[in-house]
Amino acid sequence: MQALLDALKPGQEDDTLARAIDPQRLPGHIAIIMDGNGRWAKRRGQLRVAGHKAGMRSVRTVIETCAQLGLNALTLYAFSIENWKRPRTEVEMLWRLLRTYMRLELPELMRQNIRLHAIGRLEALPPQVNGDLKEAMAHTSGNTGLQVNLAINYGGRAEIVDAVKALVEESRKRHIEIDETMISAHLYTAGIPDPDLLIRTSGEMRVSNFLLWQIAYAELYVTETLWPDFTRGDLLRAILDYQKRDRRFGGLGANGRPPVDERFSETLGIPAR
Ligand code: IPE
Ligand code: IPE
Ligand code: MG
Questions:
Q1: pLDDT at position 116, please?
Q2: Alpha carbon of 122 to ligand 1 centroid (Å)
Q3: For an engineered disulfide with 27, which of 167, 197, 213, 262 has Cβ 3.0 to 4.6 Å away?
Q4: Nearest residue by C-alpha to atom 3 in ligand 1
Q5: Closest Cα partner for 118 from 150, 159, 81, 144?
Q6: Ligand 2 pocket check: which of 34, 35, 59, 119 to mutate, most ligand atoms within 8 Å of Cβ?
């Protein structure tokens, strides 16, 4: 958190926003559905790919800010399994942009002590893209700061299918108890705590097959802002909104309601324990 404050100038709007954030209640893991690149370009009379290119700037800003905030993990939805339905030219351009991004950003990721981890059906990607991802993961594997998960050729249902297949395979060799922990441990995100906050840009109120299992209790934040327009200030505003929420996880939360057994006793007219 201090790293972010150090990077901001006093009096700047982002500085005011950052100072309003409670450092004790930061989300440990933020997930983002980076949507709206095509619409951003269209509004400017440009090709969709210009939107994807502009979106890279937001990726850079968000990664840097999460690292400065000292978060544990950031998961970015970059390409869904369903995105193969798009024109081949757009898909190919996305791979080209991704490869360029990794080549240009690797030194910066190293400098910021960031570990890169790709999640999705990576073996179905063009070999060069898969190769570059593997290389970037190996290169940054010793870093101990923010973990950035890039969801590429990712589908939430496909991930659950892959986990079930792995579990069935394992159960042939030894007895395993299937419970929630066991399923979580076989997802692409094994070992990473679930997202606390899920942000979607461009106003769509849907999850589009993203992290279906992991977002069970994530706080949702949807903004009309299109991804290429998403700034550091927008991220800080999302975190501030998150900090206003009362996360109850099915219980009664921390806002001064009596413990569950007392309230039950009240309504049933029986003395509390
Ligand atoms: C998100 O922007 C990026 C990817 C899905 C790769 P879109 O390309 O979906 O942009 P819109 O939603 O068409 O505006
Ligand atoms: C979700 O956006 C996928 C990514 C951001 C990579 P889409 O644009 O593909 O989602 P839909 O089609 O609007 O649901
Ligand atoms: Mg979209």
A1: 98
A2: 20
A3: 197
A4: 35
A5: 150
A6: 35
| Cα 254 from Cα 237, distance rounded (Å) | 22
How distant, in Å, are the alpha carbons of 2, 183, 187, 236 from that of 19? 10, 39, 36, 10
Q: Which residue of 76, 77, 83 sits with most ligand 2 atoms within 8 Å of its CB, as the best mutation to test the pocket?
A: 83
For the Cβ of 188 lying below 6 angstroms from any atom of ligand 2, the answer is no
- Cβ(243)–Cβ(25) under 8 Å? yes
Nearest CA owner, ligand 2 atom 10: 208
| Torsion sign (Cα): 143, 148, 150, 156 | positive
Q: What DSSP string describes 27-54?
A: -SEEEEE---HHHHHHHTT--HHHHHHH
Q: Which letter does DSSP use for residue 126 in this model?
A: -
Quick: pLDDT tens for 70-114: 999 999 999 999 999 999 999 999 999 999 999 999 999 999 999
Positions annotated as catalytic residues are 35, 83
Rounded to whole angstroms, the Cα distance separating 67 from 22 reads: 16
Q: What domains does the chain contain, in order, with CATH numbers?
A: 28-242 (3.40.1180.10)
Pairing between β-strand 29-33 and β-strand 73-80 as defined by DSSP bridges: parallel
Atom of ligand 1 nearest to the CA of 48: 8
Give the global pTM.
0.94
